[in-house]
Amino acid sequence: MKATFGLGLGALAALCQSVYGLEDGAYTIDSVISGGTEALTDYRQPGVPLEFAQNQRNEYQTWKFQETEKGSSNDKYFLIQSTAGTFLNCGTEKGSACVTSDSPQAFLPEFAGNGKYQLVVEGSGYFLNANYKGQLMLAAYDTTDNELFFLSPAEQ
């Protein structure tokens, strides 16, 4: 009986990891505050603050998530790259606007339930935050929907 119970827990743990664990791949980063109708859009202007726009599920709204070695062995940090080849970079200061850049920055996706994720910047501990002006910025943890995102699989 004990062996069967252990096997059941192992299978359940594997299922939870595959359902909730983010994998390498292409995603749209959809804003929860817009109900998922707006996605992070790369207008291919490095250094210009990124904004959310009507979700068209096109190449400008597709972001490649690639696991990186940063972080502790228990955490899965990802580099987030636009289809133009530049990386999502938000600096390390609270209130910084997120841009695309040649400098990669690592993010920790934390599953928040109901298909939603929070994205934490490696090193700073700040969270990505979609403000009501449609911009993506760094903020301290605040429990609002501004810090929640749908990471939806996208075609490459």
From TrEMBL:
Its main location: cytoplasm. It is found in: Cytoplasm. Residues 47-149 form the Fascin-like domain. Gene3D superfamilies: 2.80.10.50. GO terms for cellular component: cytoplasm. Pfam families: Fascin. The keyword NAD does not apply. Residues 1-21 form the signal peptide. InterPro entries: Actin-crosslinking, Fascin-like_dom. The keyword Cytoplasm applies. One of its GO terms (molecular function) is protein-macromolecule adaptor activity. Keywords: Actin-binding, Cytoplasm, Signal. This is Fascin-like domain-containing protein. It comes from Penicillium antarcticum.
